[in-house]
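**Sequence with structure:**
===
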Amino acid sequence: MSSSENARPLRLALFDCDGTLVDSQFAIIDAMTTAWAAHGLGEPDPLEVRRMVGLPLVQAVSQLLPNLDTDRHVAVAESYKDAFAALRHRGDLHEPLFPGLRDTLDALEAAGVLLGVATGKSRRGLDAVLAHHGLAHRFVTLQTSDIGPGKPHPDMVYRALADTGVEAARTVVIGDTTYDIQMARNARVASVGVSWGYHAVAELEGAGADRIVHRGREVAGAVLDLLHR
């Protein structure tokens, strides 16, 4: 039997970023508050802003401000981008890695699982946060909503599968919101919901998460179980 026949099939763990890998809520709320002020809109509800994390930016703004027209949604989104970039430029951008996630990445890599990201962040923002935490080299596919449809559309999963050559049956999405779980279901891949993010556990369960974990180090075991080790 050849070595190629003995080789284990490729497997992929596809992580959300905001609320799953890093805690970016305070920076996001800060930038959204600045954007609203720039357009005389008062202050957004921080809890509502958190609930929109993961959606494409203009879509998130449209849901937060349903009474405004599309041009205003785009303008507020642009102001948000400017505010977020200003935070980064001033050194005031804090997006800490959640505890245990580095251990999980180590464990999955040691098991031969490929790592990827599917996020509502822009590619520029994702590159910056991965570089800050020294993680850029860990991920073989990076999918962002500025190059195609965002969550819960399955496009980011499909692109990750095409990038890596991994089959859907050997892929797991890890995320903290119902958008992540719905994206996974739409792409017909397994999913792990994490409890430390921006949507409640009951919502993740209701959206159809295959597993729920409560600590960063637990993610690797849940993913490997779903991939049948």
Q: What stands out?
A: Confidence is low (pLDDT under 50) at residues 1-5. The chain has two domains: 3-23+96-226, 25-90.
